[in-house]
Design a protein that fits this description.
Blueprint (H helix, E strand, L loop, with lengths): L3 H13 L6 E8 L5 H10 L5 E6 L3 E6 L3 E5 L4 H14 E3 L8 E6 L20 E5 L2 E6 L2 E9 L8 H18 L12 E6 L3 H17 L4 E12 L5 H11 L4 E6 L4 E7 L2 E6 L2 E12 L4 H13 L1 H20 L3 E5 L3 E4 L3 E11 L4 H8 L7 E2 L1 H12 L9 E6 L4 E5 L3 E5 L2 E10 L5 H18 L9
Parallel strand pairs: 1-5
Antiparallel strand pairs: 1-9, 2-3, 2-12, 3-8, 4-7, 6-7, 6-20, 8-9, 10-11, 11-19, 11-23, 12-13, 13-22, 14-15, 14-21, 15-18, 16-18, 17-18, 20-21, 22-23
Helix pairs in contact: 2-6, 3-9, 6-11
Length: 468
């Protein structure tokens, strides 16, 4: 890692040689300890947009602010995203040997069937496809904090590059120092009004329709989602929300994406769509659920009930088989999976299996290949998606969509954005879904989505609201 002085000298050399450098990227280590609460408050307090937060035990934390390069589109075409990433890789000069610290953040909307479909009012600020290279990236690796600053070279004089980097570093690090109070503050927000996209009666009617489709067509599974819309008495504190999720769902993939101010999408999802690194791929198959038990014995009983459930094993098998088929059809080699096991979150447990494969595809192409899985769409995929649009009577937007990060070296992670909420000023839209198969029970599935609403409701400070 070059010092700032040495790096600035290198920049001058490149400019003299008239190299095609457009972005200069400087990474440095922040020497002071910063705990999780302080880190989350830093994200909450720095109002530079777009911005994104990411946390997972395997990845540490990543927060990005501002943009020095964006790719937005009304439809997702993996080759265009590949080209965007390649153009950044070719135009960037960094003080570190590889570009793994330089991450492009973003995602795509759930519905990729109809690029001409208009977004609902809730999702107007979220394009169908959106990725950005942040101006500021703060990341943690093995309990160390690194700050990466990306600047457009044509916007600053070469003589003032060092001054600009120094100014930004002082501005960012001062946020860590100023925060002071690192205690978690729990919010309790009154809800002035609430309603759901589907009432319980509509839910039961839709499940009956799905079962008829399963009986009389090639449809085998459909994931039916519902949304809960809340009007709040005061604004959400995003820092407090992240604190709660990190304390109670630290094993989940936690992210928050705010492309424009006052339009923030938050998720604490257990589901990995794809992780690509060193020519290897991992994808999670998650389906079936039970609530957590009160005490060890009840929890174990529910776990065993889930493992032995024919209905849940069938639902999970659909997900595994569809992922394997998609990868096989795409020509991937050495595809392997394991027997399903139970993964436990604070309030719910699921069946899970991992699919591994050798991979010679780009990460954007893998997103196109895999999304949506049967865990959020259905089987067969296209038939399920058409019926989802008809039955749900809502715009999923980015709910259940791929969201994540990718490096210029084409490694990265994308998750499935379930257990999520869209926050727009005083309005919150919560999302949850359940997989419907031939022997699904409407009452049980309704209770299941109630359990799935709970984590985000509590994180947002509205946990006193009936989750149904």
């Amino acid at each position: 890692m070059q010092s700032l002085d040495d790096f600035c000298s290198k920049i001058k050399e490149y400019k003299l040689q008239k190299e095609s450098i457009e972005i200069i990227s400087y990474t440095t280590k922040f020497e002071k300890f910063v705990n999780d609460v302080c880190f989350n408050k830093t994200f909450s307090n720095i109002k530079i947009f777009p911005r994104m937060y990411w946390s997972h035990p395997e990845d540490g934390k990543i927060i990005g602010f501002g943009s020095v390069g964006e790719y937005a589109s009304s439809e997702f075409e993996y080759n265009k995203l590949d080209n965007f990433i390649s153009s950044i890789q070719k135009s960037i000069l960094s003080n570190i040997e590889n570009h793994e610290m330089i991450k492009i953040l973003g995602g795509i909307a759930f519905n990729q069937l109809d690029a001409e479909a208009k977004s609902s009012d809730e999702w107007q600020k979220f394009p169908n496809t959106y990725f950005f290279l942040p101006k500021i990236i703060i990341s943690t690796i093995d309990n160390e904090i690194f700050i990466t600053l990306n600047l457009k070279l044509d916007l600053i004089r070469s003589s003032s590059v060092k001054e600009e980097f120094d100014r930004l570093l002082v501005k960012i690090t001062s946020h860590f120092v100023k925060l002071g109070n690192n205690n978690i503050e729990l919010s309790h927000i009154l809800v002035n009004n609430q309603n759901s996209t589907q009432s319980f009666d509509q839910w039961k009617e839709n499940i009956s329709k799905i079962k008829i489709l399963i009986e009389n067509s090639s449809l085998e599974k459909l994931v039916l989602a519902n949304s809960k819309i809340l009007q709040l008495s005061k604004s959400i504190n995003i820092g407090n929300c992240l604190d709660y999720l990190l304390k109670n769902y630290s094993e989940a993939y936690i992210f928050a994406l705010e492309i424009e101010e006052s339009n923030i999408f938050i998720s604490a999802t257990p589901e990995l769509l794809v992780h690509k690194s060193n020519g290897k791929l991992i994808s999670d198959a998650i389906a079936g659920s039970r609530p957590r038990g009160i005490g060890y014995d009840e929890d174990l009983k529910l776990e065993n009930d889930l493992l032995l459930s024919k209905k849940d094993r069938k639902e999970h098998k659909f997900v595994v088989e569809q992922i394997i088929k998609k990868l096989t059809d795409a020509g991937l080699q050495k595809i392997k999976t394991n027997e399903p096991y139970v993964v436990k979150l604070k309030n719910i447990q699921h069946l899970k299996a991992e699919i591994n494969a050798d991979c010679d595809k780009s990460l954007p192409e893998l997103i196109q290949i895999l999304h949506p899985t049967a865990a959020v769409g259905g089987v067969p995929s296209e038939q399920a998606l058409h019926n989802i649009i008809i039955l749900e009577n809502m715009d999923r937007g980015w709910y259940a969509s791929p969201v994540g990060w990718i490096t210029c070296e084409d490694s990265g992670k994308f998750v499935v954005a379930i257990r999520s909420a869209l926050v727009k000023d005083l309005k919150v839209v919560l999302y949850a879904g359940a997989g419907i198969v031939s022997d699904s029970d409407a009452d049980a599935e309704w209770k299941e989505i109630g359990v799935k609403f709970e984590p985000m409701m509590k994180a947002l400070g509205v946990g006193n609201v009936n989750p149904q």
